[in-house]
Each structure stands twice: as C-alpha cells, then as structure tokens.
Write a structure and sequence with these properties.
The protein is of the alpha+beta class and 292 residues long. It has a five-stranded antiparallel sheet with strand order 2-1-5-4-3, sandwiched between helices. A hairpin with a 2-residue loop joins strand 4 and strand 5.
C-alpha cells in the first residue's frame, strides 16, 4: 500500500478552498483545492520540501512540520495522528504477525455483558469473539470462519444492504476505519490482499478507498433491520483492550425501556431457546427461524 502519504495529502488539500485559508483564488486550476505551493507557503516550508514529502522522497519530517501541515489542511485529531503514522512508518518487522487470539478473561467478560450484544474486533476488522446476543443480532456463528470480517460482510454480502438501513454511512465508516488500520500496519500482507479483493469485487469499496478518509470507530449509533425482531436502533461503544492495542471490544447499548431494548430482550429469549429440528434442506434450524 505504498503511496498512502502522497495520496492522503492530495485528497486533504483537494477539499480546502483557497478562500477558506485567506488566499485569493487566481488562475485556472486543474485540480480542486489548494496547490502544493500554497500548502507549503501556509505551513512555512519550502515548496521543494513539501513536494518531496508528498512524493514520499522527503527526509525524516519533524512534528512541527507535520503539525503545521495538519493545521493548514484542517485535519481532525484522527487524521492528524494518521498523518504522523504514514509520514514516519515504524521499521518493518521481519517476523510474520502472530495469530490473533482472544485471552480467556476477555471471553469471560463478553459472556458477563449479556444482555448487551458484544463482540471483539481484531486487525483488519476481523471478528474474533462474540457473546450469544451479539451472535443473535449479527449472526457471526453462521458465517464461515474466513468470512468473519466486517468489511468483507459489508461489501461482499448482498444481505448487508438490507441488514443496515443506513448502508452508505456504514460502508463509509467501515472503509475509514480500515484505512486507519492500514496506516498503522503498512506491511500487512493479509490487509493488502483484503483491500485488493474488495477493490476488485466492489465498485463502492474502490470509490471509498480512493477517497482516503480515516476515522476512529469509538462510539456512535447503528440501525439494524433484523430479520426476526425488526428495526433496532443500537448505540455502541468501542473500547480498547488493555494489553492488546490491535483488539477492541464493541458493545451495543440499547436505551433502557426503549422499543429496541424490548426487541433485544425478545431476541435474547429466542437465542436461548433449544433447536426445534431440521429445515427442509436438512440444515439445522433454531427457534429464531434462522439456518445454522
């Protein structure tokens, strides 16, 4: 995923109009936004220095320069941190990455969180573990192990567009978070493979990835149109896992007494019900009417 720094800087300056930063817009502009020389002028660096930085040929860049560029391009906190990461990538590791594992204590915590749907995300937004209600809401156990990945499900699973009424927003958020992960791990071959596959198979992913948005997935609200209990409005919190910066715990927190909370309680009772037999095709079918 070489070229991320230059592509990111070009995409950020394209969204800033000269008049937004007190400059007169003069001459015919071939591209939208600020020119490279204008960014350099406002950041207090030479044009040649900024061009070499944007082309990935610059020397080690200081915090002061990156802070000045972030100010000119009006980067938010997440974008600013991403800029520092891609401008000064960590030394490459020769050893292959270790398999992602969820420690027993975190698995126990997931179970104690019931009746709140919860799951653990790892690198590349792989789904590593979940509790019973998290499974009932999203259906992780019905996915093949290799398919338990949020970007893959969002863009390659047709049912995702029905599951998420706000699918365009969910898709954009997913790509922005995945690009943030890519900035932290530029040499992740599995991530490069995933991005390549999604780019090849999904025009929507390809367009969003090219936009170079970065966003931390800390909290928010997700709407889900569940096939059994109907519409769910689910606020969520994403918590870092102490001792493993590559894992995060996602917990849906429906408002007590709300219609969603009532539907979650109903879903919990269905999730706890025993299996009722086999479907017509021989697959096991549970009390929710969902195929296992």
């Amino acid at each position: 995923m070489d070229g991320d720094l230059g592509d990111f800087l070009r995409s950020r300056r394209a969204r800033i109009r000269p008049e937004d930063v007190g400059l007169n817009s003069y001459g015919r502009r071939r591209v939208p936004g600020l020119r490279r020389e204008e960014v350099a002028q406002l950041a207090g660096v030479s044009v040649d220095y900024y061009i070499r930085l944007e082309q990935g040929r610059g020397p080690s860049v200081s915090d002061a320069v990156l802070d000045a560029i972030a100010r000119v391009l009006r980067l938010d906190g997440t974008e600013h941190a991403y800029l520092r990461t891609v401008a000064r990538p960590a030394p490459r590791k020769a050893a292959p990455p270790a398999a992602q594992r969820v420690r027993p204590g975190l698995r126990l915590l997931l179970d104690t969180l019931d009746p709140a749907p919860a799951f653990v995300l790892g690198r590349r937004m792989d789904v590593l573990a979940w509790n019973a209600l998290g499974d009932a809401v999203v259906g992780f156990s019905r996915m093949a192990a290799a398919e338990r990945n949020m970007p893959r499900q969002t863009f390659l699973e047709p049912a995702a567009r029905e599951l998420y009424p706000d699918w365009p927003a969910v898709a954009a958020e997913t790509v922005a978070y995945l690009r943030l992960d890519a900035g932290l791990h530029p040499d992740d071959k599995q991530l490069a493979t995933l991005v390549g596959e999604l780019s090849m198979k999904s025009e929507d992913f390809r367009r969003l990835w090219a936009d170079h948005q970065v966003k931390a997935k800390t909290y928010g609200v997700k709407r889900i149109d569940h096939p059994v209990v109907g519409g769910l409005t689910l606020p969520y919190e994403t918590l870092g896992v102490p001792g493993d910066p590559d894992q995060s715990l996602v917990v849906y927190t429906p408002e007590p007494g709300s219609e969603t909370a009532e539907r979650i309680a109903l879903l919990a009772s269905w999730a706890a019900a025993p299996r009722t037999g086999e479907g017509e095709d021989g697959s096991q079918e549970d009390a929710r009417g969902l195929r296992a």
